[in-house]
Amino acid sequence: MGHEGRELETQAVDRLKRKVTVENLWIYIIRILAEEPLHAYGVKARLRDRYGIKVATVTVYAVLYKMVREGLLRVEKRGETKIYVPTELGLEALSEARRILEGVLNDIGLNNRDGGPAGI
Fold first, then answer.
1. How far apart (Å, rounded) are the C-alpha atoms in residues 56 and 40?
2. Which residues pair with 47 in a beta bridge?
3. Domain carrying residue 49
4. Ramachandran assignment for 99, one of left (phi > 0), alpha (psi -120 to 50 degrees), beta (any other)
5. How far apart are CA 13 and CA 91, in angstroms?
6. What span, in angstroms and rounded, lies between the C-alpha atoms of 67 and 54?
7. In-domain check, residue 119
8. Residue pLDDT, tens place only, 41-82
9. Is position 2 within any domain?
10. I need a labelling partner for 49 at 20 to 30 A (CA). Which of 4, 25, 36, 56 fits?
11. Are 91 and 34 in contact (CB under 8 A)?
12. What digits encode the pLDDT tens for the residues 5-49?
């Protein structure tokens, strides 16, 4: 029986969701900031509104801090507000992440654009 129209709830699916969302927020954050540099609260709001990812504010700040330290983002001060902007390295990392994720989908035959099985 199919599960169309609803999300399947299993521990395995829940782990996968967490791994590709909360544990890899940097991918979503760079994607968001590539469209429009924002402050931390704006990033948190976009994660929630666009992707349905609800994380604590402290988590967003921690990830942003690590991303700046790693060189994926830079900070611009606008008055008292810190605005986060992706660096060239950050944009390259986003492209590499996309390549890796597409490769995984291809490897397991789930990339429909490449003739993979539909409906799986």
1. 11
2. none
3. 11-114
4. alpha
5. 29
6. 19
7. no
8. 999 999 999 999 999 999 999 999 999 999 999 999 999 999
9. no
10. 4
11. yes
12. 566 778 887 887 777 777 889 999 999 999 999 999 999 999 999
